[in-house]
Design a protein that fits this description.
Structural class: mainly alpha
CATH architecture: Orthogonal Bundle
Number of helices: 6
Number of domains: 1
Strand order of the largest sheet: 1-2
Radius of gyration: 15 Å
Length: 175
């Protein structure tokens, strides 16, 4: 069980299912540092100290891949999560979809809660990938497992290669 702490935000108390604007939230020079430090904070009580930095880096690298390092991050949606019934959302086309349909994407009102909720979603919806991530945070097996479990539609090996490139670059930049 993951015990996450969420920060209080009065905007999060808005009525369920409320449409939010498609606001760009990731175009910042501190994109990596902001998300990495919050991931460390959220994961800290839940991950062994000797693996904490690697787990956080691996998750942020996956978010970097999903958002083009923040260039396509809107409403603090770090991982391309679609909105479920009664969740706050924004509407936009899926860049990878051939049909040009607009979808409802999950929206968050602030970065700290977005990071905490999205780590919780990863843990809860993809437990087999989570176990692989915790066991071997620098290996791509957890990212490939996300693909096998339906998180993305790209071939798992090519997605994992892109993730590894992001992880390597973010590790280099973060030092």
């Amino acid at each position: 069980m993951l015990a996450l702490m969420f920060r209080s935000n009065p905007l999060q108390a808005l009525p369920d299912g409320l449409k939010r604007p498609m606001t760009a939230t990731g175009r910042s020079p501190s994109w990596f540092a902001d998300r990495y430090l919050l991931a460390l904070e959220v994961l800290g009580p839940n991950v062994a100290a000797d693996k904490l930095a690697d787990v956080a880096l691996s998750i942020v690298a996956q978010w970097a891949h999903e958002t083009g390092r923040g260039q396509h991050e809107y409403a603090f949606n770090l991982g391309g999560w679609r909105a479920q019934s009664k969740e706050p959302f924004y509407e936009a086309k899926d860049n990878l979809s051939a049909d040009g349909r607009a979808y409802r994407w999950r929206a968050w009102d602030d970065l700290p809660n977005a990071v905490a909720h999205q780590i919780q979603r990863l843990h809860d919806r993809f437990p087999s990938a989570w176990r692989l991530l915790i066991a071997q945070p620098t290996a791509s097996s957890w990212v490939e497992e996300l693909g096998r479990k339906g998180y993305y539609t790209a071939p798992p090996k090519s997605y994992a290669q892109a993730w590894a490139m992001h992880r390597h670059e973010l590790a280099r930049v973060g030092k």
